[in-house]
Amino acid sequence: MRAPTSLPAAEQPRLPAGVGLGLRWEFLEELLEAPPLPLAFLEVSPENYMRRGGFYPEALEQVGTRYPLVTHGLTLSLGSIEAPAPEFVNELRAEIRRVKSPWHSDHLSFSRTGQRMTHELFPVAFNRNSIHRISERLKRLTDELGVPMLIENITYYMAPGSPEMPEPEFLGELLEASGAGLLLDVNNVFVNAKNHGFDALDFLRRLPLERVAEIHVAGHESSKWDLLIDSHGAPVAPSVQELLAWVLERTGPLPVLLERDNNIPPLSELIREVEELQAVYEQALGRSSGSEVAFAASP
Amino acid sequence: MQQALEAFIERVVFGAEIQVDDRAAVDELLRSLQLSEIECQALRLQLPRAVVYRQLVQSTLREAIELALPRLVQRMGGIFDEYLQKFLREAGPRTHYLRDVTAEFLDFSEPLWEADRRVPRWARDLARHEALRIEVAACRHSSFPEVPEELKLAAMVRFTESSRLMHYQYAVHELSAELSDRTEPEARPTDLLVYRSADHDVRYLELSPLAASILGNLLGHQHPLGHALSLAYAEHGVEFNEQHMQSTALLLADLAERGALLGPMPEPSQ
Fold first, then answer.
1. Residue of chain B whose alpha carbon sits nearest to that of A73
2. Are A110 and B6 a contacting pair at CB < 8 A?
């Protein structure tokens, strides 16, 4: 992990540890009208608020006065051959500043194929060329965006060619080379383990857990393709909660995010699920052998 | 490898549908990637799973467009999907913003609809009308002057960025919001001012032909107010007198009250 260059570790930007929720328009108004809810933070997709006016950016500003916000992007396409367009990066930087996000995360994937934007996440090849290309891009983006970067391990349904190394080692080398932090999605690990036939715990054991700065959890569903799909359309499965607890026992307190993008239930139901995850979180920390992991990369 | 992966995904997701058991088609695809035999074999094994992405991507994009154009999609039925496939194959989305995919689809499709007799004549009007709901709602903020200023005949007029003057050949704005409704819109040239109110609602104001000409000269051609009025009055054979000026003043005051008109355009030096 890169050493801080401007701030002592204690002053590094960070999110409150505890369980937060992905902000979705389906419950944005309800959230604004509700009394303060037990949410450690909210995560937003900046693409939904960038280059636009109207109700939603204004509402987001109000939300930001009540809850800490963090940005989690969808379309940087970190793995693509072509770098993200400078205009997009500039807009993204403005949005990150606007919501005062302590860092910005996006996926370890590519979304663009040539000039086309797929609005889907595809796995990059697990090889040294990818590590070089993506780590250089991450270092540059960290400077351009003015905040530390986190990369998220994705769910992938097809394996990206013949790998030079296993995914955990690929992730480890990439994090080391880039100085970025890891946004560890334990549901993605679970889904990939089922779909590709590996052991989720073994995968987690091989990750550099000291680089985890945030954790994602979500629900998944079976599909007609005989694959688990990372749908974000169901409650978090008990097996995924167990993986979350396993990680927290080793990392200590971290921001944990519940993502829900489909079949979104009433806000009250989501809050119940956040509270359930918070209980898992606290029990895990009670058993924890880890100390707080400070993601101390700086732009 | 990454270049080949991108080409592979682009072909599988956006190209003509590949049957995984169509050996010749699969061989041709893999040959075009110019990969080693080992990499080709690895991708060949993954093809059944890569096809899953085709459905995921296409369903995301279709949902985004249907959200913006719900009545058009229902009314066009299979013809819409035909054009969606053509759009995906020949152009595809370029934007980072899902909300902008609809505009890209329409820019691609509309010229083709002109020549397709199966596409109803009112489809373009309905598409643009429906698409405006998200476009106007998402338009960037305009800064309102702290102190309202009076309009001057010699100055241009400033509207909010969300204001749009629309000319339709069909009165599509009168169609029912019901998705199942199949009433044909009346063939009647229609001018609408579409804008976002201060409380973020998208509003529609039907205009008389004279009002549409005035606003067209102000919004589209950016003439100074006096010139814009002279041109519009001349076009409609209306005398440039106090009575008509007063009616126009009322129209502009109404637009200012609605939050569509901001005031005089600041002088370049200001």
1. B96
2. yes
CB environment A27-47: b (16+ within 10 A), e (fewer): bbeebeeeeebebbbbbbbbb
Is residue A135 within 8 Å of residue A174, measured between CB atoms? yes
The pLDDT of A230-242, averaged and rounded, is 94
Residue B220 burial by Cβ neighbours in a 10 Å radius (0-12, 13-18, 19+): exposed
Q: What is the mean pLDDT of the segment spanning B29-49?
A: 87
Structure-token pair, residue B54:
């085709």
Using CB atoms and an 8 Å cut-off, which of residues 61-100 of chain B contact chain A?
61, 64, 92-99
- Residue B217 has what DSSP assignment? I
Q: Taking CA atoms, what residue in A is nearest to B46?
A: A158
pTM over 0.80: yes
Q: Can you give A89-111 as a three-state secondary structure string?
A: HHHHHHHHHHCCCCCEEEECCEE
- Residue A131 backbone phi and psi in degrees, to 5: -60, -45
How close A88 gets to chain B, by Cα (Å)? 8
Does pLDDT of B144 surpass 80?
Answer: no
Query: Strand A181-185 and strand A212-218: pairing?
Result: parallel
CB-based contact, B1 to chain A, within 8 Å = yes
Interface test with A, best of B2, B51, B88 (most A CBs within 10 A): B2
ipTM of the complex: 0.88
The Cα B125–Cα B122 span in angstroms is: 5
Q: In which element (H, E) is residue A299 found?
A: none
Chain B residues closer than 8 Å to A57 by CB: 141
B137: enclosing H helix or E strand: helix B123-138
- Shortest Cα distance, chain A CAs vs residue B194, angstroms: 14
Average pLDDT of the residues in B160-174: 96
Out of A80, A81, A157, the one facing B53 most closely (by C-beta) is A157
Total Cβ atoms within 10 A of residue B117 = 7
Quote the longest CA-to-CA distance of chain A.
52
On whether the CB atoms of residues A283 and A248 are closer than 8 A, the answer is: no
Compute the distance between CA of residue B21 and CA of residue B5 in angstroms, rounded to an integer. 20
Q: Which chain B residues are Cβ-neighbours of A47 within 8 angstroms?
A: 96-98
Cβ atoms of B166 and B133 within 8 Å: the answer is: no
Question: Nearest by CB to B2, which of A58, A129, A225?
Answer: A129
